[in-house]
Design brief:
Oligomer: single chain
Distance between the termini: 42 Å
Helix content: over 70%
Number of strands: 0
Number of domains: 1
Shape: globular
Length: 93
């Protein structure tokens, strides 16, 4: 990832944090070329920094957006109810 691309990711993250609630899809749709695994990784890094700084709301917001984008890109497996039940059962054993 180049420094220029990283700067574009940070700019997009700032736009997401500053936009009115519910406008996030519009912000993302305006820059589809930035929606990739690198953006998700950067969002999670920023979320981690926020969490360490005590900004839990910002961290949770970015994690939520990153997870949704990862699902759309096929990077985050959607677990069916059966799979979730199996995981819960195996964790109890």
């Amino acid at each position: 990832m180049t420094e220029e691309r990283q700067a574009l990711y940070f700019n997009l993250i700032e736009q997401l944090l500053a936009c009115p609630n519910g406008q996030e899809p519009d912000v993302l749709e305006a820059q589809p070329e930035l929606i990739d695994a690198g953006l998700i990784q950067t969002m999670l890094q920023v979320a981690s920094a926020f969490a360490h700084q005590g900004n839990q709301d910002g961290a949770q917001f970015l994690i939520f957006i990153a997870r949704e984008l990862a699902k759309q890109l096929g990077l985050y497996p959607e677990l069916s109810d059966v799979e979730v039940s199996n995981v819960e059962v195996s964790n109890k054993e």
